[in-house]
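Q: What structure does this chain adopt?
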Amino acid sequence: MDTLYERNRRFLESRYPGLWDAYRAARPIPADPPRSFSIPLPDERSIALPVNPKAFVQEYLTGIGQIENFSGALIWGVGAPSELELFVHDLQKNEDAGRRPFLYVESDPAVFGRVLMETDLAKLFSGRHARLAFLSDCGQLLSETALTFGEHETLAARIFVSVEPTFFARLLESPHPIGQFVTHVLKNIYLNQTDEENERGRRLLARKAPVADIFPAAYLYRKLIGWLKLFIVASPGIRTLYQNLRPVNVKSLMPLSIVILAWNRWDLTERCLRSIFQFPVPQDSEILVVDNGSTDVTPEALKQISEKMPILKHIRLPNNLGPAGGRDAALPHARGNTLVFLDNDVQILQKEWLDILVEPLILHARVGASGNFGVIHASDEKESWAQKILFPGLVVPVSWTSSFCVAMRRQAVEDAGGWRPDLYPLYGMEDVSMGWALREKSWITAVPSQFVPVMHSMNHRDGHYTYSHADSCKKNLSVFNQTWGPRRRILNLAAGNRTLISRQEARQGAQKGTEANRLTVDPGYRARENAARAL
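A:
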């Protein structure tokens, strides 16, 4: 007898090679969720959050009734086969349903067994934009998501993302590979953090709010949904990067010049140098310390060290040229094909730090910058972004990366016109502008597949400036807006500067702005837009 189960098996074996074997070999998901979930804090303490499946269910139910309003959907797990059919039915209510990307992934073999017996998969997943996967590890989840949602750019707000709540609760603190992945994502609460999260956390901590306010009952569920939506925004760049890999020989990156920017605070510079020297430095490399007009013991201390250690060069500037000017001052003195820029308040924690940092430069010949603090702009409707981007196992193109720890090809720096101290003489926005300038010259900015083991201990109020950093940031933001137009989401982070916002909308935004922060569009905006369309 030709049962539905058998027809589904044949469909999977023909349409999705390997899926059937993955399902048959899958480990069962733990039956019961833990009672609490421990989140580590920066001060080495931790907070045990209660695991509340009822709150997860409520969050889930709030979302599923709105699926027809979205332009695509990622469904990770279902409670019953009928839910899957309902999702597909609701998504197809709109007339452009055939073009809406839809991905159903399952990781629970018990649930998928019921789906095979009760759901006609060929009927639901024969369309070009519908995909089906059985996942046993995080790599598969990221790969399938990038394939499904990477073909067309979209905003996070336009994609419906659902994780079956009881399945999600059972994954927490689970030894299952998928559980380990979800646990890793949720425990690193400072990674992939949105501006809304960042501001909300600061506000609550400032008024010493109780833990229940900072981490509401559905916090864990919302965090994973937000993480998946952010990955969908990044998917076009990820898909483009990996489908057009152009690896380079690591020897082409050598020699390597480590450029440390310092102004006073010799205690920080000494700590930074000691942390670098505790690990081997690549052969034929050099360390350049740019003394940005220091007035403390920094000049004399660097002079003494450089006389004893030929690998270290001391570049003494007569006055403080700011971060951009200080970095540019090192370029004529640096021998490296690769320049690693560090602030003097950075500490190196592991010997592999350089190997991890330059990974994106090796992966693709057009990656011009790789940093530890990547930022993705996630919306065109408002100034919305996420910082400290990390998707384990994947090099990810980003909008820009902070300059406190960044590796750059010398050619990319030169093509971008350097750090532009003529535009940014003081602190603020010079690294954001560098990200846009690199992309205009067809260079990609990316973050490595794992977090670079460095610590950055900057405090804007801790003797870093002789001026107000808040005022300099405000002034530089105005310059940035005049140069580049609105900071909006770049559609494909591996190709071009094009964004969803049009030139006319940019002008309208400028008219609404204040005189001090007027958003104007530079003459090259249309040229960049046309060039990006041609890619």
